[in-house]
């Protein structure tokens, strides 16, 4: 049979890579996760941490100076409020600033300059402080507001520049904050002792101004900021997720005690342990130095492992550091000072590594929430709320620390014990350790919820039910190469995967080698989860193609198997097994003859039957035995016949014992409606096309004998005599070969192979260079399905619905390619539309290289941005080319951005034009 007249095969078309690459425009967005602009943005974001966090990281040195020098009037105990207010207010402003900048993007232009002005004024005014409340108002409030305005846009831009390496970027940013705290304590201590607090604060004002002015030129967004002043819609669906709130609770509790060691460590080392002032400054610097490594390390771990596990590591490590090292530091008179210094150094190193990098886990929190909610979720809102939660703990920890210090020691009330617990800092140390442990609250909640639910609910443990729930929700499980979900372990190759990650109802992974309750009739053995998922992924293919794919897949599995490991393979299911499996997975049926009931389900059913009454149970037994229609089952023998049967208090018809014996021996057969039912309409169009060619060839064969007189000739098939040439009329549009749509391979085209399917089939526009479409960029051919209205009024929306009322409308398959390599002459008769950007080199290899002639044979389509002028060249081609405009892409809101609802209207307009062109050229006519 001649294959040239069949539908366009996948291996017959390859994308045309034009030699006129110089004519193609470059993408407008700079590359993410790398490149000069991305690294400069990260560098400027790190540089901006100097004015933002500089004073907060060294305030412990200032507090020690103010405590030992009579510079400020007021209570010395209120000094701690300055540091906690400064840092806490900076964090608390984050939800407000991030929300405003996300809802009104144009404000991002003015945010950083305004923050610089406020910070400089507040820092300068703080140098004239004579009261403690003066310092609270200037450094604690004004500088915090200004620093928050500097911090918010830089963090938003960083999120745009780094997608796959988000954890690394965020960890590096927090590490830069720690770098600031390494050298600044020594510099601040030296300046305070030499010049005093006023001169030191004025010098800090100059440093703030210079460093910010150096960073601002490189702090640019990757996605152009919208000039519109109208408010954008915010996606707040993640606030309904329990996962977010459990992660936020752990973040808040951890922040209650996180800031206390750096605030009180200098004064603890000098007043309680009796060490020098330089030793206290060295301990703070050591904490910040190890925070650099910890921030980067925990950020990288969040890119690879579950965020709850990384939080557990951070929380346990920091809690043990506080309780074992800081709490056991000895006071003077009990042990040598060398032991106290050693314990404090170990504490600063370990606490700095584990607790100092806790904020780096926010990248994992953002990734987890977006995965469970929506990939297009605004990450700025999540980041702002996490920072705000940290600010809550920080602000509360200021006044709370005063109360903890006043409560005294945990041992001797005099506060002069031999360990840190028995000093005036004892209660504060214990509180810090406890809050550090509860930083892993999300892990505790997850472990408790999973253990409780999984232990009591067998349905949640079952792989088949988990897959069925995932299919029903439309959130299919993610194949991974390990039991932990991360960007590195996620894979699209089922042969390489070892586990499946299910996000709902509770995140968990199931090994693909797990045996299920589905029992194969051929092997009488359970089928593993990999075979079940493979069958589901190939549910739309015919049996021969499914078997061929399974054999290829088993070969790939064999290559993946290492020496000494057990060789795995997918089990091939027969037709009835696949049919039964698909029907059950789709929810069309709750019963399956191949799936065993869950353990305990049979006992539960028996108990329910007993509770319903013995009469109903007898009736069910009678029906199972074959006595249907109200006939009571009678035991073998005459004795059984003598006893009248009753059911629900009503007399029942008795049956002859001999006939009952026959019923008891009958074997229950399957209902033909169950066995023969289908899961989808079967498309035999390819068979009709092949049969048509075969019949045409037989008719035209020379020497073929004609029908004898008096003998009725054979009746041709319904598709016989139908021509594939568009100029001839056909009796059915389904006898036509699949129509072809050509799109432009230009990089400036908004519709390319990567996004054409989602655009034309679903009405969803995503830029072709978007990272979420990276897996579709290499496609050589795309197939679409569209129910056409060729025989009705295209302008009448009810045309399809009226046809569906009598008989379902079968979708027409379209083939989309971006080049004409290996195009056969007959394929040009199937061309129905050409997408163009106005560049004439696209048509050089076409049968009709002249645009006016080309658009006489196919509908021309131009898609551009809304608000941009249509190229003059496209306008010059006249009415043969229809022009359409889509809204500009908003990276933050994604497919939910403003105006995205118009995409479906645009797509409907395109299809209407294509259908009208097909109707005029003879498609669908009778």
Automatic annotation (TrEMBL):
GO molecular function, one term: transmembrane transporter activity
Region: Disordered, residue numbers: 637-657, 696-740
Cellular component per GO, a single term: membrane
First-listed, main subcellular location of the protein, grouped into a coarse class: membrane
GO terms (BP aspect): positive regulation of transcription elongation by RNA polymerase II; transcription elongation by RNA polymerase II
Compartments reported by the entry: Membrane; Nucleus
This protein's record includes keyword Cytoplasm: no
Occurrences of domain Cell division control protein 73 C-terminal (ranges): 736-916
Transmembrane region(s): 39-62, 82-102, 109-130, 136-156, 168-188, 200-218, 238-260, 280-302, 309-328, 340-359, 425-444
InterPro entries given in the database record: Cdc73/Parafibromin, CDC73_C, CDC73_C_sf, MFS, MFS_trans_sf
A Pfam family that the UniProt record links to this protein: CDC73_C
Membrane topology: Multi-pass membrane protein
Alphabetical keyword list: Membrane, Nucleus, Transcription, Transmembrane, Transmembrane helix
Amino acid composition bias (Low complexity), ranges on this chain: 723-740
Record bears the keyword Ribonucleoprotein: no
Family stated for the protein in its record: Belongs to the CDC73 family.
Name of the protein in question: Major facilitator superfamily domain, general substrate transporter
Organism, scientific name: Penicillium patulum
